[in-house]
Design goal:
Helix content is 41%, strand content 18%. By secondary structure, the protein is an alpha/beta fold.
């Protein structure tokens, strides 16, 4: 059958017009590199749980989250991030879970040119700040709360025992800086590995130094180990921990030995205890309702809140980025970054976030409360 070139040209024209009028079939792809196994699992699992209950739509675009398990290993985390960028063409990355993994991934941020939302508190390398965002509160903000509490309770000397990695060092630096300013003398600085099952020698040296208080610099369930040893040896001083240890699994593992431990945390873990006028009480309550409807009453914890807030930051920025670019492109990722840098006073579950091009630590000062383990539960300390 003969078809004139004129008819063929007109047909192609109309088909092209019809195709142009159809809605775009794109999607926003978010990569999540989390520790679902290994020492970081008690953090990584709630991170994943919170992302699994999000509304998988931003504007008119569908959202797809690709989860990869880094097994709590920095090398695996880097491999996973590279795979997400090269194979899945992700528009943003949430994670990794712990500080060593997050620092390892941050080293490649400029090369990847993809917004990375670290779920662990890290000090962003000076030449890697453009693409890395830190969701949790800064360690300085949280440890200042610890030292202020020590001052109120008359602490004059203190000891420290933390992980023998980047997280342990970060907590120690903040503790020393704040304690020095407060006139609290530090009499011990002990370390242990995340996978250690005993800290007997370290605690023996701490007890011999007779500190008024001891601060733990671990995270997750391994963070309970020093308190167990302190309790078994009959230590009678004050015991503190950091915000990396505030979850239900820490209470389960530590049992009676973490009773009385004091720590800083985000407001989510004690949302029901906050005063009615607390700025983040409603956003926290809304999230807890959704989370506990899926996973059970009492399951919501600070770590779930951090990944929820990372998704919220992406959603707000992506809503504007979609006006100028399509997902799956460098142009979209750059637009996403530019709009992230304009976020001002956004209430999440764990903090009010304000981000600028020169400050990618978004959590503001209302992101810290002090809590204490009372009768096996985290209880708000009134300031």
């Amino acid at each position: 059958m003969y078809i004139s070139s004129r008819f063929f040209g007109v047909s192609v024209f109309f088909l092209s017009m019809m195709a142009a009028s159809l809605p775009a079939q794109s999607e926003i792809v978010i990569g999540a590199v989390l520790s679902e196994t290994g020492p970081g699992a008690s953090l990584g699992i709630p991170y994943k749980n919170a992302l699994a209950i999000q509304d998988m739509k931003i504007g008119n675009e569908k959202v797809r989250i690709v989860f990869l398990n880094d097994n709590s290993d920095p090398t695996e985390a880097v491999k996973d991030v590279r795979k997400l960028v090269s194979d899945q063409k992700v528009d943003a990355i949430i994670g990794p879970t712990n500080t060593p993994q997050s620092l390892a991934v941050a080293q490649f941020a400029n090369e990847l040119k993809t917004p990375i939302f670290a779920l662990a508190p890290i000090e962003i390398p000076e030449n890697r700040k453009e693409w890395v965002y830190v969701v949790p509160q800064t360690v300085g903000l949280m440890i200042d709360g610890v030292v202020q509490d020590m001052q109120k309770r008359g602490v004059k000397t203190a000891a420290y025992i933390g992980f023998s990695d980047a997280w342990g060092e970060l907590v120690w630096k903040s503790f020393k800086n704040s304690a020095d300013k407060a006139g609290i003398r530090l009499v011990a600085n002990e370390r242990y590995a995340r996978t250690d099952t005993s800290v007997t020698a370290q605690i023996a040296r701490i007890i011999a130094a007779k500190p008024d208080a001891v601060l733990g610099g671990g995270s997750g369930t391994p963070g309970a180990l020093p308190h167990i040893e302190l309790g078994q040896r009959g230590y009678k001083g004050l015991e503190y921990d950091n915000h990396g240890s505030v979850n239900q699994d820490y209470l389960r593992v530590g049992g009676k030995y973490v009773e009385g431990v004091i720590a800083p945390t985000g407001p989510l873990v004690v949302d029901k205890q906050l005063p009615a006028n607390y700025p983040l009480k409603q956003t926290g309550a809304d999230f807890m309702r959704r989370y506990e409807a899926r996973y059970g009453v009492g399951t919501a914890n600070p770590f779930a809140g951090y990944s929820n807030d990372a998704f919220l930051l992406i959603k707000v920025a992506a809503t504007h980025a979609l006006k100028s670019a399509k997902p799956g492109t460098l142009k979209f990722r750059m637009a996403l970054k530019d709009n992230l840098d304009k976020i001002t006073k956004l209430d999440g579950t764990e903090a009010t976030y304000t981000i600028t091009p020169s400050n990618h630590y978004g959590a503001q000062d209302n992101a810290r409360v002090m809590v204490q383990v009372v009768n096996g539960k985290w209880s708000l300390i009134s300031e």
